[in-house]
């Protein structure tokens, strides 16, 4: 799924799957849409004039894009990791997953990644 270069044009902003479709391997499609909505509300609450809408939308895009791209990459990585064909790469993956270390190839078992994924706050981050 190709990344869009921008989600905002003028006073129009894309959110959720319209902005950033997700592979299902991190189960983050709906969650990221909700984060988008909360971030958008947070940015719009900061303005007092209609003329400031454009800049509020740009701030929304800037705050969300890097995080969403990281999550998209994580979902893609998990899909590739879980679907390795039998062979040396699959054996190496299984050994790493059994080690239960940080940076586990299975993002669901990577404590550092999980803290980052679920610890985000739309109003302060």
TrEMBL record:
Database matches in SUPFAM superfamilies: FAD/NAD(P)-binding domain
UniProt name for this protein: FAD-binding domain-containing protein
Family: Belongs to the paxM FAD-dependent monooxygenase family.
Domain FAD-binding: 6-70
Cited InterPro entries: FAD-bd, FAD-dep_Monooxygenase_BioMet, FAD/NAD-bd_sf
Key words of the record: FAD, Flavoprotein, Monooxygenase, Oxidoreductase
Single GO molecular function: monooxygenase activity
